[in-house]
Amino acid sequence: MNSKTDAAHRSGCPINLTVEVVGDKWSLIIVRDMMFGNRRHFRDLLTHSQEKIASNILADRLRRLVTEGIISKTDDPSHKQKAIYSLTEKGIELVPVFAMIGAWGSKWLPVSEELSIRARLLEEGGPPLWEEFMDDLRVAHLGKRPRPGAAGPGVRERLQAAYEEVLARNGPAAC
Amino acid sequence: MNSKTDAAHRSGCPINLTVEVVGDKWSLIIVRDMMFGNRRHFRDLLTHSQEKIASNILADRLRRLVTEGIISKTDDPSHKQKAIYSLTEKGIELVPVFAMIGAWGSKWLPVSEELSIRARLLEEGGPPLWEEFMDDLRVAHLGKRPRPGAAGPGVRERLQAAYEEVLARNGPAAC
DNA sequence: AAAAACCAGTTGCAACATGCCATCGGAATC
DNA sequence: GATTCCGATGGCATGTTGCAACTGGTTTTT
Lengths: 175, 175
Description:
- The structure is a homodimer of 175-residue chains.
- Chain A is mainly alpha-helical.
- Chain A has two domains: 75 residues, Winged helix-like DNA-binding domain superfamily/Winged helix DNA-binding domain (Arc Repressor Mutant, subunit A), CATH 1.10.10.10; 78 residues, no CATH class.
- Chain A has nine helices and two strands, in the order H-H-H-H-H-E-E-H-H-H-H.
- A two-stranded antiparallel sheet of chain A has the order 1-2.
- The longest helix of chain A has 30 residues.
- Chain A is globular and about 45 Å long.
- The N terminus of chain A is likely disordered.
- The structure holds a DNA duplex (30 and 30 nucleotides).
C-alpha cells in the first residue's frame, strides 16, 4: 500500500524500526549527553564527551536526529552563529529506554563506578523518577512551565551531584 | 590501571558500553528472533526473519554475541551439523530493554499493527509479565525447571497467539 | 582597530563494515 | 546414490566511520 514509505524500512516491527533510527554507535550517545549532560550546542557535544566523537559524524547524526524528530534545532538569540539543539517530546520519552539500558549495562558490563551511579539511581527511582525527569526535560527543552510542586534541584542536577560525590570520594585525579 | 581492557572501550559509561555491545543494525534483531520467535538454529534465523539478514552477517553477529556472553552455542544431539543457540541469563535480562524499546517504537514510529501487538501487550503487562517471560526463557534456554505455579501457555505463546489473531482479523493475505 | 579565539560545520581520504551472491564440505534424508 | 539440508566462508561492490585539516564567519581580547 504505502510502498514509498515502507520501502525505506526493513520491516514494520517496533524493535526493528527503533534500531533503524538509533541503532548505531553514536546517536544514543549524543542524546544521552543532551539529556543527562545538558549539552545543547555543537561544540559542547563535540568536546565535552567522554567518547571523542568526530565533528563530521556529530554533524551527520545531529542532522539525522533532527530529521527523525528526536531533537530540534533553533538559533541561539544571544549568538548569531550558535545553534541550540533541544530534545523533542519524542526524544524525551527515550528516558525509560535509557533507564533500562543503563540498568542492564551496569549489571552486565565493566562499567566505571563514577559513570554508573546515575544509572543506578535512575533504576532505583523507577517510573516515578523517570516521569519527574521527563517533566524537567520538558521545562528545559520544550519551554513548558514547571509543575506547581516542583522545587529544589531537578533530577539531572541530583544525578550530577551524585556523580561528583563519587568522583570526590574516589580521588579528584580521576577526572 | 587496567589499560589493556579499557583500551577497547570508548568509556566506562553503561549506556556507551551497551551501545558498543548491541549498538548495530543486526544484533538486537537476532536476539529478538531468538527471544520472541523461538529461533535456535542458524537456518531458522537466516530464513524466517522479516528483515532478510545476509548469512555472513548472521554468522559474524552470532559469533560476537557468543563472545559477549549474550548467547551460547551448543551441539544439537539429534543432528551433528546443527548448532543450537541459546540465550544466556545476560541475554534473557534484555527483556525489559526490549519492552521499553518496543513501547517507544510503537508510540513514535510507523509500525505495522500485526508486529506491534506484542510490544503493546508486553508494555501493558509491565514488570510482572516481563518476569514471567524471563522465567519461561530460563526454562527454554537454560534448562531451568518450570516454577511450580506455571501452567498453560507461556508468555511467548500468548504473544504469538495475539499476533496471529491480528493477522487473521486483518486478512490472511497480509502474511 | 587588529589579533586571537570561537562557532558550526565541510572536505578529502583511508580504513573498515555491510550487503549480495555464489559456493563449500560434511551430514541427513529420500 | 542423488538430493536436500547444515552452518558457514569468499569475492566483490558499495556504504559507513574516523581522522585531520580547513572554511567562512562572529565574538572576544588586546
